[in-house]
Design a protein that fits this description.
By secondary structure, the chain is α/β, with parallel strands linked by helices. It has 15 helices and 13 strands. The strands form three sheets. The chain has a seven-stranded mixed sheet with strand order 2-8-7-6-5-3-4, with helices on both faces. Strands 9-10-13-12 form a four-stranded antiparallel sheet. Strands 1-11 form a two-stranded parallel sheet. Helix 3 crosses helix 12.
Length: 446
Amino acid sequence: MSPVRRAAPPESLPEAGVPPRPARVAAMAQALQGSEILQIAAEIRALRAAGAEICNLTVGDFDPKQFPIPSELRREVVAALDEGETNYPPSEGLPELRAAVCRFYERELGLACEPKNVLVAGGARPLLYVAYRTLLERGERVVYPTPSWNNNHYAHLAEAEGVPVACGPATRFLPTERELAPLLPGARLLSLNSPLNPTGTAFEPEVLRRIAAAVVDENRARKARNERPLFLLYDQVYWKLCVEGVRHVTPGALVHEVADVTVYVDAISKSFAATGLRVGWAVGPADLIERMSAVLGHVGGWAPRAEQRATARFLDDAPAVERYLVGFKAAVAARLARLHAGFEAMKRRALPVESLAPQGAIYLSARILAHGKHTPVGTTLRTGEDVRRYLLEAAGIGIVPFRAFGVQSDGAPDSQGWFRLSVGAVSLAEIDAALPRVERALAALR
């Protein structure tokens, strides 16, 4: 028999004059906030397990029943496993995948690189973390817009100073050169993402060109003073999911001189609905990539060997890539358009909502101005969390407030009432069923 484990006695309050016990973990870990998105997702899973009907628009993931990975990619994974590709890959990634990424970027983006410029990892997330850890000394500054995904947490993990730039709907929640340029002197890293998580909006070419030019100007001044350069981290993991009429742009294609300090982060996770296969890559200057590889080698965040082999073969199959994206992008765009049309219809009926026309990724930005209103049972909705919980309980819809994306306060004028709605795990039928429930729940507020 296993020994019975007795519960530890509850912590008692320290006696007067007795210092509190020291924390059991490092200060960095003690102060680190967990993912609010994952907490909300766990709550919804529990409700669904109990039989509740929930339209889950929370996590940035794909339900394979709605969005299966490309059939060619699946076949290549199985083939690689059958070939015995189950041991450790090289820490920097398989040579054939690094070369395939170069061919893919030149073919699709017009960006030239060599395998020495490519680092492969288990998705985009480890590469973002490794870029922070490689570039930032303790206390150095990283500039990033809000709302945005996880920059505040990566800054904390790197013990850097985060410099958030609050962006609002007037610029579709994306920063401009005018906002960023005054913050670049003294910064070590500028972190950008397009199409943007959580808003589903994308940089216009001229806006990004001006930002890239500001980085070049800043580095020219630093070079004259023999100072370390400012780097640009460009997360483009959703770039293949731009809607019709929106063109994805890259800093290096717009301003060639910025290439020497630009790190692109990308993956098959979102472009090919392959979040669970865990294959991502960074593309950047060879000296930086080599140091990032050294850091990653100690972390061990490598992509599985079979999936790397399969991804290399799939990226080189241009017709298969194009065939998949045609149907995949249309299905994502249809869901985003249906949500947007539903919220705009509610707005026309004088309900307190609005949404931004989607430009890319799998997200819709919707504003629900329910702060200060009272529910049918008399509860006052004071925060975005209150609104989120009310709609989950009254309308069976799961959404995420912008507060989860580094926005400082529910009360900030440009953030109040904004939510991210993610369509990767829902059908059109689920959206059609949920919208009337949302309308009834909002109409019931007083």
